[in-house]
Amino acid sequence: MQLAVEDSNRPARILSLVPSISELLVALGLAPLMVGRTGFCIHPAEVMAGLPKVGGTKDVKLDKVRQLAPTHLIVNMDENRRETVDALRDVVPYVLVTHPNAPEDNLQLLAQLSGVFGHWPGVQAKADALALELQSALGELRDREWAAQRVLYLIWRDPWMTVARDTYIARMLAEVGWQTWPPTEGSLVGALRYPKHDGHKTWLKDVQRVLLSSEPYAFDARHLAEAQALCPGAIVQCVDGELLSWYGPRAAQGLRYLRDLALDLR
To answer: Which of 117, 140, 163 is a domain's end point?
Structure first.
């Protein structure tokens, strides 16, 4: 959807319900237009600290949204509930729905935001620079030959939860030949995108690398032994979940981080 940044010569009032896109809005120079955020929108801290919270990504407080009177609401099909978005369509004039499912989808995301807010000074130039950086990082990975590995990417424990192969995270990992297990597709939205398992699957013995994400569950060194027990023959390590799952300005940085992981430089 391509929308003008202004109505009746009044600047837009942007409310983002997506942490990574809140960070992207700031990177594009749109912080002066932002009027609110979720409690999970934490980067950059110096900007987010000055913005009102409207709850979490899944439990948005509709009354607070109404009080902020945004003109533009930015949501995500994975992050936000459909019923929340439907309820807010009667309150907010313009709703921008995002759903990047692969690192290259950041290019479409940048085009979507610059198409809407490109009249704001500097936005288009910043979007173009981020697009070039992403294309460079992707090109560097795709110019290499990577050895395939079976990877268990854990985002939760009790129960264990991982990612389906059609998610953004799995497609990031695929850029270095890392194939997420189990080998399932999760569909467009819903719980199947993040399958659960009980830790007793036969395929676990063939996993070569276990990645413990720092979010949404805060895995750290205390969980290494527990994860190693799941896959005794695997390399087990903690990874920066923001770099591997956030869209926007972290995408290119995340690809370089992933390159270093695959080359055992970290």
So the answer is: 140
pLDDT tens figures, 166-196: 999 999 999 999 999 999 988 777 778 999 9
Distance CA 103, CA 111 (A): 14
164 shares its domain with 134: no
Helix/strand/coil (H/E/C) assignment for every residue in 131-192: HHHHHHHHHHHHCCCCCCEEEEEECECCCEECCCCCCHHHHHHHCCCEEECCCCCCCCCCHH
> How crowded is residue 6: how many other Cβ atoms within 10 Å of its Cβ?
13
- DSSP code for 91: T
Q: How deeply is 25 buried, as exposed, middle or buried, from its count of CB atoms within 10 A (0-12, 13-18, 19+)?
A: buried
114 three-class SS:
helix
Question: What total number of domains does the chain contain?
Answer: 2
Range of the domain at 77: 14-140
Residue type, 188: L
Q: Looking at 93, 116, 140, which one is the last position of a domain?
A: 140
Q: Where is mean pLDDT largest: 61-65, 190-194, 198-202?
A: 61-65
The token pair at 139 is 């090109």
